[in-house]
Amino acid sequence: MKALVKTALGFGNLEIQEKPEPKPGKGQVKIEVKYAGICGSDIHTYEGHYKVGVPVTLGHEFAGVVTEVGEGVTEWKVGDRVTSETTYDICGRCLYCKSGDYNLCKQRKGLGTHQDGGFAKYLITRKESVHKIPDNVDFRSAALTEPLACIHHAISKADICGGDWVVVTGPGPIGLLAAQVAKSRGAKVIITGLESDKTRLEKAVQLGVDVAVNIEEDDVKQLVDQMTNGFGVDVVLECSGAVPAARQGLDLLHKKGKYVQVGLFIQPEVKFDLEKIIQKEIVVIGSRSQKPADWEPSLALLKDGKVDAKSLVTHEFKITQWDEAYHAIKSGEAIKVLLTPAK
């Protein structure tokens, strides 16, 4: 089968390879991939800013059908419509594994980063990571369950509830999902972006966001002051991974507000105004990936129509068309890009 493989670290080094069709071992499930989403971390990996265990087939956002199960698997059968957590292996012994926080296990191995992922026709995952796709949820939407689970994880940490004012910085796929999840909890949401994000900001309005702001045209701080009587917002979800957005987020929060970092920065070291954090008693929250408890609630959001993931999908390509997919993302033309297997 053809697979899109990161062969070495650094910029590029991504190529189509012929790989043998995998076989599930004990406790494993084989999935035929229908759609796999390109994540921002895949772009960072391609550009050399994010390290993975090369060589490895990328792709950790996907949905498909069970085609084979390994020894001891009775929970799943051939034909089941499923998606899967990215966790492929854990130590099972550390504090984080015992508490269900697999995303923090030092020995964790993830699909698409350490173990071959979804940019291929087939992949292998462990039975415990598999989740059934609700009957009324299509494969395209289900392929976005993983990023939605990441957002559910972040928003759960922030404890967003009805009446909260929330600013989402960055109207990419993660930001647009974040805005929808925050709205589903009764929050009032402001999303910010640049002139180049015009299409994405328009999509945000279509999805029910209260205010979409082009910060190159409007003063978002002034707008926030007007809407909160000068008080500031309750939560900032920083989804862009842009340093200016992170700095601005601290200004928009009221005292004792919550700042949640979701987006990945190209450079890990970022200048931050710690004085502002101290004086305003801002709560700073890191949110890494997702954990098992985030998946069923995320699938329920799709099932109940509280999150419209399918409308974020603007482009589809074969895995052999990486260059076109990459250009669509980097040009700002695309919102969410899905890849499909190649024969």
TrEMBL record:
Q: Keywords of this protein's UniProt record, alphabetized?
A: Metal-binding, Oxidoreductase, Zinc
Species whose genome carries this gene:
Thermoactinomyces intermedius
Query: Which superkingdom does the taxonomy of this entry point to?
Result: Bacteria
PANTHER family from the UniProt entry = L-THREONINE 3-DEHYDROGENASE (PTHR43401:SF2)
Q: Which SUPFAM superfamilies match?
A: GroES-like, NAD(P)-binding Rossmann-fold domains
InterPro entries referenced in this protein's UniProt entry, alphabetically: ADH-like_C, ADH-like_N, ADH_Zn_CS, ER, GroES-like_sf, NAD(P)-bd_dom_sf, Zn_alcohol_dh
**Cofactor(s) this protein cannot do without:** Zn(2+)
Q: Which family does it belong to?
A: Belongs to the zinc-containing alcohol dehydrogenase family.
Which GO molecular-function terms appear in the entry? Answer: oxidoreductase activity; zinc ion binding
Residue ranges of every copy of the Enoyl reductase (ER) domain listed in the record: 10-339
Per the record, a Pfam family? ADH_N
Q: Does the keyword Membrane apply?
A: no
- Name-wise, this protein is Zinc-binding dehydrogenase
